[in-house]
Amino acid sequence: MQIKAKCRYTVDVLQALVSFTLFKRATPKKGMILWTALCTVVLVFDIIEIIAFDLPFFTYSGLVFTVVFLCYIYFFYFAVPKIRYKIMSVPEVLEIEYAFYDDRIEIFTAKAGKIYIKEIAYSELTKVAETSKYWFLYFEGKRTYLVDKSTLEHGKVDDIRLRLGVFVGNKYYLCEY
After folding, report:
1. Do 133 and 166 fall within a single domain?
2. CA–CA distance, 73 with 156 (Å, rounded to integer)
3. What pLDDT is stored for residue 59 in this prediction?
4. Cβ 148 vs Cβ 134: under 8 Å
5. Burial 160-169, CB ≥16 within 10 A → b, else e
6. Partners of 121 in the β-ladder
7. How confident is the model at residue 23 (pLDDT cuts 50, 70, 90)?
8. CATH code at 116?
9. pTM for the full model?
């Protein structure tokens, strides 16, 4: 039985992928709040320690590290999806179609008027992440494909979940968001 799906790559889709990369199963909003609060506590503690004890210059490293870490998380969460979208914003490549079979996935992309078909066996899957809206399919060789669950045709979410789960086992991540 063939189940079809699509994914139109947008900033929101790439934001969801970045959220999974940063926070795995945790809700991204909670993750950002947690890391911001933790870094704020560390910053306040470092500032109080520097002022109260008049510490030498090398003790500023904790302060600098915390600020750099916080900037990295915010940059990765907010800017990277937009940068990646601009890099890949060639209109023909922004939508990918998928056909899920019993033993493989066919991936259809159109570029410069030509349709390219790629067949990938489920055995090449290394992990799968599922959110409320998407599946992130990770294959050998650092390839990641995103599937929009709302575009399923000729099948149900449970059908795909079962197929993917059989091949990745405990590498199937069901996210809270």
Report:
1. yes
2. 35
3. 67
4. yes
5. bbebbbebbe
6. 104
7. confident
8. 2.30.29.30
9. 0.77
Q: Assess contact for 43 and 66: CB atoms under 8 A.
A: yes
Residues 64 and 116 in one domain: no
Alpha-carbon gap, residue 26 to 4, rounded angstroms: 29
DSSP-assigned states of every residue in 21-85: HHHTTS-HHHHHHHHHHHHHHHHHHHHHHHHHHT--GGGGHHHHHHHHHHHHHHIIIIIHHHHHH
Do the bridges between strand 3-8 and strand 95-100 make them parallel or antiparallel, or are there none, so unpaired?
antiparallel
Q: Are residues 73 and 94 in the same domain?
A: no
d(CA 97, CA 65): 43
Tokens encoding 149: 């669950």
- Structure-block tokens of residue 172: 């199937």
And the tokens for 144? 């990641």
Kindly state whether residues 105 and 170 are assigned to the same domain. yes
- Please give the single-letter amino acid code of residue 123: S
Amino acid at 110: A
Residue 63 CA to residue 47 CA, distance in Å, equals 8
Calculate helix-pair angle for 28-53, 11-23, nearest 10 degrees: 60
* Closest to 135 (Cα-Cα) out of 119, 120, 152: 152
- Give the pLDDT confidence of 120-131 residue by residue, as tens digits: 999 899 999 999
| Total H helices, total E strands in the chain | 5, 8
